[in-house]
Amino acid sequence: MIYIAAAIIVIVGTVLVSRLLSGHKVEDGVLVIKTGNLETFIPMNEIVEVFEMDEMSENASFFEKYIVRPYVKKERIAVYTRSNVSYFFILRDPDRLVKSVKAQNPNVYIKAKVI
Predict the structure, then answer these.
(1) What is the DSSP string of 37-80?
(2) With a threshold of 0.85, does the pTM exceed it?
(3) Residues 41-78: pLDDT tens digits?
C-alpha cells in the first residue's frame, strides 16, 4: 500500500514539475522553448511569423468542451521561419511568448488570434 502511495506521489510530482518548468526564454538571440523534457532552439533572426491558434474540434466531447477546456487554458502557437520550417507548440501563456518575440525582433509579423 505504501508503495502505491509513493508511486502516485512521484508521478504527480513529475507532472507538476514538468508543467512548472515548461515555458520559453530568449538567450543570446535564440528563442528557447521548453515543453516537458524537450527544448527547441529557434534563432530570433530566422522567425518570420508567429500566431496563436485557439480552435476546438466540432465533434469535441462534452468533457472536453465544458470541463477540460475552461480550466486547462493551454493555447496553440505556430512559429514560421525563413528556412521554411514551422514549429507548433502548446503553451499556457502564449501572449508572453508573442510579446517577447516582438520585443526582440520587431520585424516579426504577428497575426491576430485564429479562432
Answers:
(1) TEEEEEEGGGEEEEEEE----TT--HHIIIIIHHHH--EEEEEE
(2) no
(3) 999 989 999 887 766 666 667 666 666 555 555 677 88
